[in-house]
Design brief:
alpha/beta, Rossmann fold, 8-stranded mixed β-sheet, 17 helices
């Protein structure tokens, strides 16, 4: 729309994730906004090392290409980079972006307003959707613009035992900065909004910014069976667990369920469990169990499947399994349910709001009901259910943009 503000999009998180495999979760949201802004008035900003850098529009197309594995826009690795062992994607991309920067600033962002106003006349809104670069000096120094921040969840505060060591304190500081300085706060679900408001009260911070619920969109990639591993047998019933292998995703429960199935079923009747996602953190016991799996067994792990390969699995799986202990939204749920794939999930508030009665809800604390339900479904022919309507990206973009316009008046 003609009266939409020009956005100053923070891409710090997306840059930090380069070279770590397919984008997941929050990374996908930042990439979705970057794609949405192509062809619209905007600039980019990112914290690269000790400096904040204002980046040109052209850097966005390159960043999206790099994030999707297309390195044709990246200069070849130099001999010096090889000698210094700095040939990995992320450091190379950072050097390229630093050379292209329109302005380099201290971490407080002093001087940013001058650099932006020369290139984006009119209303400008700073947008941060990545849970990074949310320090007190940075956000307070952006008072010349409308500051909009998207909060995905409060898991580091609600479940510090399920996150990286020290992450709870880091997130608390970021949330306090947001609550004190943001002009608009958006959350990806009503459950996250409730959690954030609860923490605002607990932290004793006065209400300042409007809080809007802006569910993130679900992009249904086209299935690409050719991207699947050649030795994968899809003629037998299989179930998919999709997401980073970290404590809160609760893969340990699924491994326990498959151990129960192995005790009760002959090998020929064992369903397959395909664990899809890169390995995360603070999960040594689960990693050890995965490493001990026998080759050719019913449980397999895949760390770097393409979106097309994942779509091909979801389209043919007997069910998606999600025993997660905490979620802000749950993109795998909507990706599966929109395709008509059955979902077995822990009964988390965001999940219940998304799927209602269309999923099978099971406790995340007991593997026995999961094993029983999986065995029952595996005996049946694979069934395609009626796909449910899921949130789309246009509604998300419009909700956030409208909230920014309203706050700027």
């Amino acid at each position: 729309m003609a009266d939409d503000p020009a956005f100053l999009l923070d891409v710090t998180r997306l840059i930090s994730r380069l070279g770590q495999g397919p984008l997941t979760g929050i990374d996908r949201v930042e990439a979705a906004w970057l794609s949405h802004l192509q062809g619209r008035p905007h600039l980019l900003v990112a914290r690269l090392g000790p400096a904040q850098m204002l980046l040109p529009v052209e850097a966005g197309a390159d960043l999206l290409a790099w994030a999707n594995g297309d390195l044709s826009r990246l200069p070849r690795v130099s001999l010096l980079e090889r000698l210094l062992r700095q040939s990995a994607l992320r450091p190379r991309a950072k050097r390229v972006l630093a050379r292209r920067a329109l302005r380099r600033m201290p971490q407080s962002g002093r001087g940013l307003e001058r650099g932006v106003s020369r290139r984006l006349p009119g209303a400008v809104a700073y947008l941060n959707v990545g849970h990074t670069n949310l320090t007190e000096p940075w956000l307070s120094g952006l008072g010349w613009t409308t500051r909009a921040v998207l909060i995905h969840d409060t898991i580091p505060l609600d479940h510090p035992e399920l996150t990286r060591a020290g992450q709870s304190d880091v997130f608390r500081a970021r949330l306090v900065s947001v609550l004190r300085h943001a002009d608009v706060i958006a959350t990806i679900s009503a459950a996250t909004r409730d959690d954030m408001l609860r923490w605002r009260d607990r932290l004793g911070i006065a209400a300042r910014a409007p809080v809007v619920v802006a569910p993130i969109g679900t992009t249904l990639a086209a299935p690409v069976p050719a991207d699947l591993p050649a030795d994968l047998d899809l003629s037998r019933p299989f179930f998919v667990a999709l997401g980073t292998i970290e404590p809160r995703k609760n893969h340990a429960l699924l491994l326990g369920a498959w151990e129960m199935l192995a005790r009760d079923l002959p090998a020929a009747d064992m369903p397959q469990l395909l664990i899809v996602g890169r390995r995360g953190w603070e999960n040594a016991a689960t990693f050890a169990r995965l490493d001990a799996l026998p080759p050719g067994g019913p449980v397999r792990e895949f760390n770097d499947l393409s979106d097309g390969a994942v779509a091909a699995l979801l389209k043919r799986a007997h069910a998606l399994l999600m025993p997660s202990r905490s979620e802000g939204f749950g993109l795998p749920l909507t990706e599966a349910a929109a395709r008509g794939t059955r979902v077995l999930s822990a009964p988390l508030a965001p999940a219940r709001a998304l799927l209602g009665d269309s999923a099978i809800w099971l406790s995340p604390d007991d593997p026995a009901p999961w094993a029983a339900e999986i065995a029952r479904i595996a005996r049946l022919p694979r069934e395609t259910l009626t796909g449910i309507p899921v949130p789309g990206w246009p509604d998300h973009f419009r909700t956030v943009t409208d909230a920014v316009i309203s706050a700027a008046k």
